[in-house]
Amino acid sequence: MAFPINQDQIFAATNGGLDIITRFIDGVDPNKHFKIRKEGTESANMSKKDGIYFVRDWGDVGGFFEKSRHAIHIYSHYTGKTYFESLLDLGRELGLVDDKNTAVKNITSCKFYQFQGELNDQGFCYETKDFTDYELEILGPLVTPELCRKYGLYSLKSYSWIKSDDLQQKEMCTVYTVESSELYPILAFIVSDGKSKLSVKGDQVGDKVEVEKAETMWLKIYQPKSHDKKYRFSYLGKKPKQYIFGLDQLKSTYNKIQKTDESNTAEDGTLLRMEKLERVVICSGDRDSINMASTGETVIWFNSETAEVTESQVGMLFKYSNEVINVPDLDPTGYDAGQKLALNHLDVKTAWLPDSLTKKKDFRGNPLKDFTDYIKSLTSYDDKDQKEMKIKIKRFIELARPAKFWYKKQRINRDGKPTGDVTYIINYKNAFNFLKLNGFARVKDEYHKDGYYFIKQEKHVIRKTTAQEIKDFFNQFLDKKQKEHGLKLFPDELLNMLIGSEAVSDKKLVNLESKDFDLIDFTPKSQYFFFDKFIWHVTKDKIEEITKGYSRYVMEEDILNNVIKEKSKVDLDSSKVKILEKFFDIDKGEDGNWILDIKKKDCDFMNYLISASRVHWKSELNDMKPHEWDEYLNTHKFIINSEKLTEDQIYEQELHFINKIYAIGYMLHRYKDDSKSWCLYAMDNEVVDDNQSHGRSGKSLLTNRALRLFMNSKYIPGRKKKIIESEFIYDGITRETDYVLFDDVNKSFRFDDLFTDITGDLHVNPKSVSPFIIPSHESPKFAITTNFAPVNLDTSTLGRILFIAFSDWYHIKNDTYGTREIPDDFGRLFFTGWDAEQWNYFLNFMMQCLQFHLGCKQKVEAPYGSIKKRNLIAEIGPAFMDWADEFFSKERMNIMVVKKEAIENMHASSKYLSGVSVNLFKTRLTQYCELKGYIFNPKEVQGKDGRVIKWDKDSQKSIECIYIKAPLDPSEVPEGMEIFERENDNPYD
User: Fold this and answer.
1) What phi-psi label fits residue 261: left (phi over 0), alpha (psi between -120 and 50 degrees) or beta?
2) Are strands 772-774 and 762-764 parallel, antiparallel or unpaired?
3) Distances 902 to 462, 884, 922 between C-alpha atoms, Å
4) What does each C-alpha distance from 576 to 460, 563, 571, 582 come to in angstroms?
5) 928-986: per-residue pLDDT in tens?
6) Residue 74: strand, helix, or coil
7) Which of 417, 459, 828, 954 could bond 833 through an S-S bridge, CB–CB 3.0 to 4.6 Å?
8) 704-733: string of b/e by CB count within 10 Å (b at 16+)?
9) Above pLDDT 70, what percent of the chain?
10) Residue 16 near residue 30 (C-beta atoms within 8 A)
11) Rounded to 5 degrees, what are φ and ψ at 597?
12) Handedness of CA 890, 893, 897, 901 (dihedral sign)
């Protein structure tokens, strides 16, 4: 079967390739010079030959465009695809390749008695074929059929195997056959031990079984185009527990270089001196090894990149070669395996691939990571022998370093033999490599006194360390190795050299490799949470556990386990922290209302928030006697939708709960959106006079105890006098601070003083340190808890507040109800009294709150009714409230009252009201009417100028009045008069 597409078809369908070229290069013009490189000039031009367009940049010396490139070259260059991969991609895109005709349909089955082939005694068979150009390209740019045969790699036309079943006769067992195709190659390493074994042949039931001699063998099948990773590699036959591929070739090469002439041969025929290979390279996989061998290197590899490499195996490799070099993959598994091999076998050198390789993707969308990817990235279209590539590969191999950070020095006598004392010397480049392998690095920090600090990285955790600790690490490492391997390999002289000298000094450690770590724990659409063993990555759609391949890091002190230990004195066992199913579902109905479905009620913290949202719990007691209340409340805990409530009351309670879930998610998400910079304002929902606020409703459990477990926080006691006026109010806040809590602020706290801090840059003036500014996008989020309502709820204030209101389910004792505290409902203290299961529930619930927030496009407010009422009460003040309640009796409702007389009466009623101006009087009276549900100066009694005027017959003058329209009791309504109702009676507005 021929390859389904060729470049001529692509050129014919894309105007000689011009349509493809213009996709990748802006400003292409066949008639004039243009610019390709950002830093370059207009030194590129386009030419056309035989209907095909070419691009060349005369200024790109040594670069890709130094020579003329056509469209497929350019497509491959910008996408990282090979030539044949580019043909296929473009063919599919242009409709020249039919996926239906090229789809893989390569597996068939039949019963053993129907099988026409011949299975060996191990139950399989195979048929080889010649390599195609496409298969060789898949393997690597320098790979040849001869090289493949040398290492036992073959292209298969097909392979078959029998699936045995002890309960079935062999003739009735199924035989499966897999066939390769032009686009779906199948390759195999065929390994034989050369011993004679039996094989069986059978066609149909009753046929005579023939016995033949055959070699025992096993196959490692490689299907490079399998989209499912688990089918990419498979085995036929019985493979050994550990097998070293390439070892036979290594031995063969070693034997070939030995000098067998008389000058190197003893009388008994043995060789006097054995020559060694310059080096042997260990690669992580089959393709990598074949590609490394294609550059001329001698290579071996194991069944798996994570295979345990023993001392005897490494010793054997050094028997044949002077150097052993390992080339690991760049993915997490490869890095861990490479690090382990380097530190377990200090003489083995490691050649690390460049990190830039991982920024490109393969056809599956995965980052490039191995030597095959690297060698393909160095391929040049113009260099048939790939001389430049081979030079770069050789240089890459030569730069390999061991973890062994010392070498010994000894004099050599005239006979070429070592003599005298041995001295040990530090190789500093290798020493820094050793430290790097053990996670040590230097981090630049402009705010640090030295401009940097030292760290030790273990997986995703970064711990600050000191120069002395690094020096101690060298000694501890060698001391451990000496105990494991003895004095011969790790003599005292080596350890004494480190201890008794300045071999590792502070000045030298300044040269330790500098490294940057991404410590930002959020994106605009997600948040990371760091445990000691793993990371949780939370998006609106899922919670993902990350155990390797870290892109984000955390300082050791900020690990959740450590924060929980510090704040709650609890040792969190991460092994018992698991991602759970949803505790609740929240959706929007067709009418725009929220729909709450609570699925699980095992979480203490969620149940506490349910109770804190039961703002109508007292209504549930209306038809009961007082002595029945306690029993009812104790048996109806954590029920937000009691059947004793109206639909409106239930919905209001559900809104309070949903609002708290949203608020938790908002606070947990460290990302700051300028359009959503809010201060969390936690207050009591119960409408009372602010002079009689009670508190104790459970606000601080959320804001002070729970949220601070997840964030670096600054706690500010809100009742301290003039706290907001202190120039050092933010002392202790750093750029790492996520959360500022003003806890339990008093009535006089001026929220508007925080306006710029909440939405703008944060100016920090620490004691004894120079002031600094934290930009808005890096500044912390704010929260306030209070028993008092905020005053002046204007648009500017509301735009900076996210209210959450707490019911008085939890309360102190009063004349009607006894004390109810949080432990009364749960029988244990929160946090310190929780077992591992409750901690897991709590952590999952908080993550699910964050998921809800991330999925919301709009702010989810608390029901505003009670909040607004408390705000009005606070602004009106008790003195004005008492006067208005008394003055506006029934006799003064729904009639005109002379404004001047009302003001004079108010001034005389209290010394606190004697200075109230006319304008403030109108403001307070308007607020009073809003609170009571009255209408101040209704439109039907207003004049053209908006005032209420009546004609006074006695004085013959117009007098300004006030008119308060109030609902009437039905029994008092005169015949023909309608009862006035509030224009807006919606409890959720």
Assistant:
1) beta
2) antiparallel
3) 70, 10, 11
4) 19, 17, 12, 18
5) 998 888 999 999 999 988 899 998 888 888 999 999 998 765 444 444 334 444 344 44
6) helix
7) 828
8) bebbbbbbbbbebebeeeeebeeeebbeeb
9) 91
10) no
11) -130, 105
12) positive
| Token duo for residue 38 | 């950002």
**Dist CA 357 CA 627 (whole Å):** 75
User: What's the token pair of residue 506?
Assistant: 């502070």
* Tokens 């981090």 sit on residue: 443
Pairwise CA distance, residues 890 & 897, whole Å: 12
Residues sharing a CB contact under 8 Å with residue 30, sequence separation 6 or more, in sequence order: 18, 46, 48, 53
How far is CA 855 from each of CA 526, 804, 861, rounded to the nearest angstrom? Answer: 10, 19, 15
Are 554 and 462 within 8 A, CB to CB?
yes
Q: Is 244 left (phi over 0), alpha (psi -120 to 50) or beta?
A: beta
Distance CA 2, CA 183 (A): 9
* Residue 523 contacts residue 431 (beta carbons within 8 Å): no
CA angle 227, 233, 236 (to 5 degrees): 135
Rounded CA gap, 937 and 940, in Å? 8
Rounded-to-integer distance, Cα 650 and Cα 260, Å: 97
Dist. CA 878–CA 886, nearest whole Å? 12
Phi/psi for 245 (5° steps) reads -70, 140
pLDDT band at residue 97 under the 50/70/90 scheme: confident
Residue 643 DSSP class: T
Q: Is the dihedral of CA 165, 168, 171, 176 positive or negative?
A: negative
* Lookup: tokens for 929: 């009417």
Alpha-carbon Rg for the chain in angstroms: 40
CA dihedral 544, 547, 549, 553 (to 10 degrees): 90
**Considering Cα of 352, then 354, then 355, then 360, what sign does the dihedral take?**
negative
Length of the chain: 989
Q: How far apart are CA 628 and CA 966, in angstroms?
A: 38
248: its two tokens: 């036979």
Q: Supply the pTM of this predicted model.
A: 0.77
Q: Tell me which residue of 686, 741, 681 sits closest to 710, measured CA to CA.
A: 741
CA 282 to chain centre: 33
